[in-house]
Amino acid sequence: QPKTQTTVKYGSLTPKHRTDSAMVNFRNYGLGQFIHWGLYAIPGNEWEGVSARKGAAASEWIRSWSGPTAPENWKETYDKLYQQFNPKAFDAKAWARQAKEMGAKYLIFTTKHHDGFALWPSRYSDYNISASPYKKDIVKEVVDAYTAEGIDVFLYFSVLEWNNPDYMLKAPQTEAEKKRFQRFLNYTKNQLLELLQNYPQIKGFWFDGTWDQSWIQAYPFTYALEKELRDKHPGLIIGSRFRNDEHGKRHFDSNGNLLGDYEQGWERKLPGDYSWLNGNDWDAVMTIPPNGWGYMKDWSGLYTKTTDDLLEMLLQAVSMNGNFVLNFGPDGQGNMHPEEDTIASELGQWMQKNGEAIYGASHADLPISKYGYYTQKEGYLYLTVFNRPVNNILRIALPKNSKEVPVAAELLAGGEPLLLKHSEIGLDLDKQAYYDIQLPRGFQTDRAFVV
Ligand code: FHN
Questions:
Q1: Which atom number of ligand 1 is nearest to the Cα of residue 293?
Q2: Is the dihedral of CA 197, 201, 202, 203 positive or negative?
Q3: Helices (DSSP H) in 33-174: which residue ranges?
Q4: What are phi and psi of 190, to 5 degrees?
Q5: CA of 208 to the centre of ligand 1 (A)
Q6: CA 345 to each of CA 99, 100, 348, 436: distance values in angstroms, whole numbers, following the listed order
């Protein structure tokens, strides 16, 4: 029996599958870069030699450091860090070049994280970059540099603001609380309209910090605000974290329909199966360390993902019609972590040779391959191999009545033709037709490859 539909007045404002050019481009990105940068980069998850690992949930949450390891009067200390924020090594053009060489097609950049410090000279809060020794508009430098490199920019915006006296966790009850929180809502709206006005090149917002009841209960306001943002910036892309329906349902409304233009729930994890996505657009955002989006001085003792780990996650995402967004957390001077530089370079070398299997590619409706991940584009089927068979034969299983069958095969990098044999092996039990692709004897590679 179909599930009974719930009346939803404050549901999605856009169709499930937008076909406008902005959203088509979003679907084709494949690989993105996330950058978490702000005052939390100055301590780098420690202070005066003491690690915050045991006292804060993540490096960019270091303001909330508590417990026996937390320094005396830590929040007061943190809230003065802006007075020393003067990233001498910051070069937005160098970041953008690195992202271009890595093969990223979009950037998600933190304009303001939960600590409320704005990296742009906001007219609506004095707690912003112009109050720091650096003074200049970092958001503008980043938006201009990445746009100049042809990389689309999305702005990360945290609604939650730990140090804003008008913010509250619970829904406002008293008249005074309602007045106070309404002031916060208006402030949030003003900052968002300001970002759209200052940086018209941007393609969308990546919202965060929208889980408290104060915001959840403000659904009439957030519904109207989303409409206003979209009216002001036609084609704007807004993810599923921005708001909820009147029943408090976030990401998906009470009938399971996506709220926003793409699902933002895949953070530090990937869907196990294509069917979980219900045909929705989505991105997965990923840290190199286990957790920690802002700069961490010390990665020792942590499993930090290798380039091969990240390549496999990229293919897993693209094979299921998602984008994969890798996070970088520059230090307080504007330098990327040396490990981030290495990974960016190695990913870029691979994307240079194999990007055709990623950009604009989509899910192929085939049985899961034990060798790796299928993607498809314009009549081509790509198999990115992570698990190379010892007999050097890659077996493609297709339903017997497939209309499209492979007629030739080649190594994507270099274009070497490969022997393709159609072998109806009589394993009728699974009604598949098999195509065997013979890898060349002596074919050497130490990283995933694409046929
Ligand atoms: O609390 C934030 C966290 O600091 C980080 O910004 C991530 C990035 O997706 N989002 C929130 C946790 O879900």
A1: 5
A2: positive
A3: 74-78, 92-102, 138-148
A4: -60, -40
A5: 7
A6: 9, 10, 5, 33
- Residue 368 Cα to ligand 1 middle (Å): 31
pLDDT tens for 353-383 read: 999 999 999 999 998 999 999 999 999 999 9
3-state secondary structure 389-449: CCCCEEEEEEECCCCCCCCCEECCCCCCEEEEEEECCCCHHHCEEEEEEECCCCCCCCCCE
Q: Could you give phi then psi for residue 291, rounded to 5 degrees? A: -145, 175
CB of 208 sitting under 6 A from ligand 1? yes
Q: Is residue 35 within 8 Å of residue 110, measured between CB atoms?
A: yes
Backbone torsions φ then ψ of 147, nearest 5 degrees: -60, -40
| pLDDT of amino acid 391 | 95
Q: In terms of DSSP H, where are the helices of 91-218?
A: 92-102, 138-148, 175-198, 213-216
Q: Nearest to residue 40, comparing CAs of 1, 4, 7, 75? A: 75
Q: What's the rounded Cα separation, in Å, for the pair 53 and 155?
A: 28
267 in ligand 1 pocket by Cβ < 6 Å? Answer: yes
Average confidence (pLDDT) per 10 residues, the chain, 451 residues: 81 94 98 98 98 96 97 97 98 98 98 98 98 98 98 98 97 98 98 98 98 98 98 98 97 96 97 95 98 96 97 98 98 97 98 98 94 97 97 90 89 96 65 89 94 98
% of the chain surpassing 70 pLDDT: 98
Nearest CA to ligand 1 atom 5: 293
> Does residue 325 line the site of ligand 1, with CB under 6 A?
no
Distance from residue 210's CA to the centre of ligand 1 (Å): 11
Whether ipTM exceeds 0.95: yes
Between the CA of 424 and the centroid of ligand 1 the distance, in Å, is: 50
